[in-house]
UniProtKB/TrEMBL annotation:
It comes from the Eukaryota. One of its GO terms (biological process) is methylation. Residues 200-254 form a coiled coil. Keywords: Coiled coil, Cytoplasm, Methyltransferase, rRNA processing, S-adenosyl-L-methionine, Transferase. Residues 243-288 form the RsmI HTH domain. The keyword Methyltransferase applies. This is Tetrapyrrole methylase domain-containing protein. One of its GO terms (molecular function) is methyltransferase activity.
Amino acid sequence: GTVYIVGTPIGNLDDLTLRAARTLREVDVVASEDTRRTAVLLRHLGASPKKQLSHHEHNARAASARVVELARGGATVAVVSDAGTPGISDPGALLAAECAAAGVPLVPVPGACAAIAALSISGFAAAGFRFGGFLPRAGRGRREALAALVADERAAVLYESPHRVVATLRELAAKGAGERRCLAARELTKLHEETARGTVSELAARYAAAQDEAGKLRGEFTIVLAPLAEEEVAARASEARDAAQDEARDQLRERLATGQPLSRAVREVAAAVGARRGAVYQIALELKDGG
């Protein structure tokens, strides 16, 4: 049998592709993140009653083994999440890996993606982008993920829940992205779809005010950070070069003071700080000349 990884609607039921609809009608078994929600979709499609298998983050290993067993027995299985594509910020990666390891054929049936949908209307010129998905909720993992998003020169896309979106925007601003252009898309493809544009700091203030007024925000958010402007990319590169040269100067001074041969010191320091050997050699000459 074959396992189909099927993209489902991210909001509007009409997000479903014709191919996905046909696949869901024809397979023998549907592995669902939430069998009740999938049952609604199957009824909407007029599909005949299907055997459903529960597959979510808490039973992923056991469910994956069951899917492999069914496929090896000749059954065709569609794997779906509540919204979007399994394995992309949803359960599915382990199942795909287990199927691949067992030699079970895997077929992707693409569908709607909130990240791509939001990026497409952002207006940000992005040859590439960083996908953050759902960030860790707290701790070191969250801090590191936010720092990596801000440090990346490319556009960045992440998902956030309504009760954490204000905190996330504020944290992004605190880490240096406050003036970066941003799109916040809420409830994409649903009835109350909404988009807002501004800087990260402006959107943090906007949604904080909305939260205070309404008591709470509703609907999942997709946040798109614009890529850095060319001027900021150049400024960052210049700062990095200056910092590397300062570090190289300090290390060279220490090494030469201990009598380490100049050529060896240059070679090792250049490797340590990630600078060009010629630039480090010039610094070494300046130090030997008393600079």
